[in-house]
Amino acid sequence: MTQTLEPVVTTGRTPQQRIDAWLEEFETALATLDIGRATNAFLTDSYWRDLTAFTWNIKTVEGHEQISDMLTARLADTRPSGFGTTEPATDDGDDVASAFISFETAVGRCEGHVRIRPDDNGVDKAWTLLTTMQELKGFEEKRGATRPLGAVHGSDPDTRSWAEKKADEERDLGRGTQPYVLVIGGGQGGIALGARLRQLGVPSIVVDRHDRPGDQWRKRYKSLCLHDPVWYDHLPYLPFPDNWPVFAPKDKIGDWLEFYTKVMEVPYWSRTTCLSAAYDETAGRWTVEIDRDGERMTLYPTQLVLATGMSGKPNIPTVPGQDVFAGEQHHSSQHPGPDDYAGKKVVVIGSNNSAHDICKALVDNGIDTTMVQRSSTHIVRSDSFREIALGGLYSEEAVQSGMTTKKADLTLASLPYRIMHEFQIPIYDQIREKDKDFYDRLEKAGFKLDFGDDDSGLFMKYLRRGSGYYIDVGASELIANGTIKLVQGQLDHLTENTVVLADGTELEADVVVYATGFGSMNGWAADLMGQEVADRVGKVWGLGSDTTKDPGPWEGELRNMWKPTQQPGLWFHGGNLHQSRHYSLYLALQLKARYEGLDTPVYGLGEVHHLS
């Protein structure tokens, strides 16, 4: 018979005592397979976010019905035990107590985070629960106390040096030994995942079309810098040194990625283009045709990862007159920088991050530049974003107060997407008040501002649609004072030397830059594998929030990212540096488990509601 918790008075009890009592009750319910009792340990409005530990998926379940359904499907196999706090619990106010936790499952060691608060009867129950797989039992990374010895003390039948062994391995991989995982895309996402797979002993290759690791950054316009601060951007295993700039220039990031690839011994094939990929359902593997620096090769990976960032193919509008325009036209992803445009008039179509960066670099070099804003844009000043939105988790002050990158990542991950906007709205209310004069000047200049459909700001816009914002590092002031010319309107057509908007406005132009964003990542799948596979997977990115450019129904997690898809053996990996670091762990563990032949029953495989 299902038991229920007795009322507990929280007054006079420490946060640690409250958390300990809840963990004891929860573990007892799980150990006895009492799903009703375990479900009753949660508030009616509650959220359990699981990153691989229970579901072999990236999955959030909400409320009693979904929690009960997940436990019914997964509890017996998962066999969780050993729940405890990893550091003292904290009082978060409003009767909420929280703690970082650890536990084990039948196959893994796990960590997480829990928030509890009393229900109407005074019983402490879980409001949010995060559970994450951290390592697989028996397949731990060789690090710390178990790191490789390196030197050979005594006789060894293999007399090859480290360099010789590495050279032999590189010659054999892809020929004598097939990669279990092929990662297409060698930017920060592919490199981070490649490093994780290397440490886990999973045969893999990261391929990229550029000449060197880091060229994805080096070949962008010369003024590009990261807009996120350094504390948010560390890669796995090797954090940036203490003297690294807060906002790293693109060439410095490029050099770091190349250095990281070598030091972490990531199997990386540069100057390599994937030509096609086809999945053999019978054999359970891919046939991938590649061109490696002029040599045609065929690879047969079991798992294929598209690590092409969070974006798909460039969106370039098709309008009349593009064939008669006498000047230069290109997408922002191909923009070379301002050097070749002295004395020319440049029109930039768009008003998000890339558009602002490109316009600023152009006017800084004395080039006549006009930005065409087609719809409202969210702007947040870099200093305010760093101080108010990220400062508590990712800042020097946070580090000095004891915050680690891992704790910050788990804290951020512990906020379910369903209610994350409720935490973000007060942050952006504070920013809007702090920077009121700044926003007033922008609006006076004619710039159309927004803070998202529900005023929740940048992070929710990023998760929902991956566009529609700019972190201001100077371009906004240039718009406010008129240095960057601003016009509003929709692109109608081009003539030989003008851009014409829908209201008839004509803009003289020698160069047109389409800073018009990107499509869904499954566009790359369509190119490599055909439209049928792309449609089987469906849209990549977005939460299903039913806000602008993020159609419902509600997904609860980012569509198709870092988790199994409807196409067997196909995965998507990417995002910013933070996401490349954090979620590469869960993707690598899912791939490692399959490589070792572990049973990985996926709970809650995402349905396809949108094709692009």
Polypeptide structure, described:
The protein is an alpha/beta fold. Helix 16 runs antiparallel to helix 17. Residues 147-169 are annotated as: Disordered. It comes from Gordonia paraffinivorans NBRC 108238. InterPro entries: Auxin_biosynth/cation_transpt, FAD/NAD-bd_sf, Flavin_mOase-like.
Q: What's the structural blueprint in terms of helices and strands?
A:
Elements lengths: L14 H17 L3 H5 L2 E10 L6 E5 H16 L2 E5 L4 E4 L2 E9 L3 E11 L5 E13 L25 H11 L8 E4 L3 H12 L4 E4 L7 H4 L31 H14 L4 E2 L2 E9 L4 E8 L2 E5 L3 E4 L21 E4 L13 E5 L3 H12 L3 E6 L4 E4 H9 L5 H5 L4 H9 L3 H18 L1 H9 L13 H7 L4 E4 L2 H6 L4 E4 L2 E4 L3 E4 L4 E3 L2 E4 L7 H8 L1 H7 L32 E3 L4 H19 L17
Parallel strand pairs: 1-7, 8-9, 8-14, 9-10, 14-25, 15-24, 16-17, 16-24, 17-20, 18-19
Antiparallel strand pairs: 1-2, 3-5, 4-5, 5-6, 6-7, 11-12, 12-13, 21-22, 22-23
Give structural attributes.
612 residues, alpha/beta, 25 strands, globular, disordered N terminus, flavoprotein, Oxidoreductase
User: What is the count of DSSP helices, taking H or I runs of 4+ residues?
Assistant: 18
The first-to-last residue Cα distance is 48 Å
Q: Name the beta content range.
A: 15-25%
Average pLDDT level: 94
Task: Summarize the biggest pleated sheet.
Answer: 7 strands, mixed
Which stretches are poorly predicted, pLDDT < 50 over at least 5 residues? 1-5
Q: Name the shape in a single word.
A: globular
Gyration radius, rounded: 26 Å
**Based on DSSP secondary structure assignment, what is the total number of beta strands?**
25
Structural class: alpha/beta
Q: Helix content range of the residues, please?
A: 25-40%
Keywords: FAD, Flavoprotein, Oxidoreductase
Protein name: Oxidoreductase
InterPro entries: Auxin_biosynth/cation_transpt, FAD/NAD-bd_sf, Flavin_mOase-like
Pfam family, one: FMO-like
